[in-house]
Amino acid sequence: MLQPIDIPLEKAIEKKPYFKYLRIDKMPHIWCPGCGNGQVLKAICIALDKLGIDNNNVSMVSGIGCSSRTPGYFDGYTLHTTHGRALAFATGVKLARPELTVIVTTGDGDCTAIGGNHFIHACRRNIDITVLLFNNWIYGMTGGQVSPTTPKGSYATTTPYGNYEPNFSIADLAIGAGATFVARGTAYHVTELVNLVEAGIKHKGFSLIEVLTPCTIQYGRKNKMGIVDMYMWLKENTIPLKAWEKLPEEKRKSKLPRGILHHADNREEYTHRYYSVVEKVMGGNK
Ligand SMILES: Cc1ncc(C[n+]2csc(CCOP(=O)(O)OP(=O)(O)O)c2C)c(N)n1
Ligand code: SF4
User: Fold this and answer.
1) Tens of pLDDT, residues 85-95
2) Which atom of ligand 1 is nearest to the CA of 134?
3) Which of 67, 101, 139, 220 has CB atoms 3.0–4.6 Å from 134's, for a disulfide?
4) Distances (CA, A) of 64 to 32, 108, 218, 232, 246
């Protein structure tokens, strides 16, 4: 049977410093073989280590879903909340403790279906939270139902004849709703993802990082894609933004750009604005 870890934690951290952000005693994790979720967690931990942010200064918040299990493995202040409500809880955490780095880990169903309303308003407010939105195109945890990002024509348990609804672009939705940092990465391009997480955390406003990550079991099985097929899809169908911009219009449609898609520094952050109002109203006494 797999053991959580068979070398002392200090030794493991010496070899891989990002291990200090992991609850090693909770390993092995529950994710299926080939699932991209672990890669995303790893990218978050490496980015925090590169930024030199201490565990005690991070709060990771999630809703419900396979991707929302991520805080269970993260050694910081963590909240595993109700389905679709991660951003509402995270907003409360950030307002109460603005000095914390608040990270939300959420799924496409959690964030853009049941949690869609919270999502657009968090974008609109420009609150300083970094969202890692694990987009695996399906509801993984509950058996593979269709989600708002399931590609048209793909199979899910609730679309046995192929999805006949158009899916939307999370990045476009976030930009339209007012997010000031919007990026896209994948669980295949982990080094790039680390850079995106770093940039998202550094940005003082609402940061949305959409991460395309394979659900090898629910999506893969229903769409006859094996683990390797799913990672190869990410490799071949996503390209760096600069290369994507050079493509002729008709070719752009079949590829997705990776990188920082939108970055605006011209809007005040929400907690800053909130505390300015409190100070004004209270005459300087919080
Ligand atoms: C109010 C409520 N409705 C429905 C559920 C059941 N439920 C739990 S997770 C989930 C979908 C998760 O999908 P997604 O957010 O895409 O995450 P994934 O598992 O794919 O990472 C649903 C419908 C619930 N827990 N609570
Ligand atoms: S069901 Fe899908 S998303 Fe959930 S752990 Fe398995 S592969 Fe990952």
Assistant:
1) 999 999 999 99
2) 21
3) 67
4) 17, 11, 16, 28, 39
Instruction: Average the pLDDT over 87-114 and give the result.
Output: 98
Place of tokens 């959409």: 210
Average pLDDT, the chain: 95
Q: Which ligand is nearest to the CA of 146?
A: 1
Contact status, residue 218 vs residue 139, Cβ threshold 8 Å: yes
Contact present, 37 and 67 (Cβ < 8 Å): yes
Sequence-separated (6 or more) residues with CB below 8 Å from residue 77: 56, 58, 59, 60, 93, 100
CA 81 from chain center: how many Å? 15
pLDDT per position as a tens digit, 194-243: 999 999 999 999 999 999 999 999 999 999 999 999 999 999 999 999 99
Q: Is 37 in the pocket of ligand 2 (CB under 6 A)?
A: yes
Which residue's CA is the closest to the ligand 2 atom numbered 8? Answer: 35
* 169 alpha carbon – ligand 2 mean position (Å): 21
Q: Is 65 in the pocket of ligand 1 (CB under 6 A)?
A: yes
pTM value surpassing 0.90: yes
Q: Is the Cβ atom of 64 under 6 angstroms away from ligand 1?
A: yes
In the numeric block, which tokens belong to residue 229?
A: 């097929």
Q: Is the pLDDT of residue 12 over 80?
A: yes
Section 135-160 average pLDDT: 98
Q: Kindly report the protein residue whose alpha carbon is nearest to atom 2 of ligand 1.
A: 83
- Residue written as tokens 């070398």? 7
Report whether 209 contacts 184 (CB < 8 A): yes
Q: Rounded distance, CA 90 to CA 174, Å?
A: 17
